[in-house]
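RETRY 2/3 - previous attempt timed out on the joint model. Re-submitting the same 489-residue input unchanged.
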Amino acid sequence: MPLSQPLLSLIAYLLLAIEGGIVSILIPLLIAPRVRGLFKEERFECGQTPPPYGRRRLAMQYYPFLLVFLVFDAASFILFMWVYVSRVYPIYSFLIFSTLLFLLLPPVLLVRKLAEDIRQWW
Amino acid sequence: MDAQTKDVRDSVSFWLIISLIVILIIGWAIEGNVLIDFLVDLVSGPQVLTNPLFLSIVFPGLLYVSIVAAVAIYVERKIAAKIQIRIGPQYAGRVEGILQVVADGIKMAAKEFVIPRTVDVTFFVAAPILSLTVGMLSITVVPFSPTTVIFPFPANLLLFFAIVSFFPLTALLAGWASNNKFSLIGAARALFQQASYEIPMLISALAPALLAGSLRIEDIVMAQKDMPFLFPAILSAIIFLAAALAETEKHPFEIPEADSEIVAGWMTEYSSMPYALFMLAVYVKMISLSTLFTDLFLSGWLGPISLPPEAWTVVKSWIVLLIFLTVRALFPRIRIDQMLKMGWGSMLLLSVAGLFLAIALGMVVGL
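RETRY 2/3 succeeded.
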């Protein structure tokens, strides 16, 4: 099946970008000198002896921001429907989507309060 | 004691792999006479500007993005130097260190790519390639003229933001794969920052879409033939610029890779060309966001003087890019709690206020 012109451009572009990335990584692996060192392959710990594990627990106080982001991300994509509805029902769509924005105000106030109090967790 | 290992530069395998890559590229290009069609179009006139290979390889594809990124890196260093009463790059190349970027590229390629033994190798190597690819993908839907777009799409504004949502995931992948506490903290900071500023950016971009009545960027540009949307949507434009700075992790939003706090953030364990790929991806994102800003608020390829439309888009996007580069030298880095407070408080509320202001001013000017 012949590909359409735009799809051909996109595929060519993506393939070249990925290929460029792969070649860029291959070049130093092939041409750069490799000098083995005692601590070179250990994880970086600013001169300290690296502990056996590198992945630590993340601070809990940042978790609500991600939850609120999930809600807002979905809501903002719904807001994009306003663009099409506004041409047909301008007043009606303005009222509906303004109400939606108003309903999103409590999470905004919550995360703003969390951001102000975040230094208490330090 | 360190032991000098034998390098592979004069081994047969190096040349075999290079030859294989070249053969694969030529073979893929020749399949279906794609390369021949491209070469015929190249010598036969201006219709080459709509040739899919030209769009993806030359303009606005890989070649354009790579050259602009290289020039932007040099210009940024020079601007920062002049603001800080320094000279900046001086010695590479005869004139004002103009070949500094080339020298840096060669240096990066000749440095050893150290893969620590504790990392998740697959994702550690894949993360920079993915970061560059996602950055490059963001420019495919941004039009430089009605016909100069790599991937035309009916709702390309929405598609652009869908691609932008992937930006923090590559940082998270790199940070997690590195198995290093500094990398993980940097990756988490990148995620929180880009999540916090994506919503104000989305809502700010909604203002010109509402004024034009379309989610297609080409329609938004054509709706600005009487007046750029910068004037009715001035607040949205400012919020969009600030949010775009945060998305690209440039000063004052350089929290994910705060050098004085967490070494290099999610790029701590990276060296050589993978590190350069991450840097290139950042500048590619800046180029795509500045071009989108040009299309949304500065009337894109429309201009008072009769010039090729692509020229207008490039000139205007460069003006926006210069703003990004100059801001880097003017502001210190903010703290993460300041960033969160600003993103979820003032930026979000101002973006909504800007939206309503744009609607009101749009009604006044008759849009």
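Chain A has five helices and one strand. Closing ticket.
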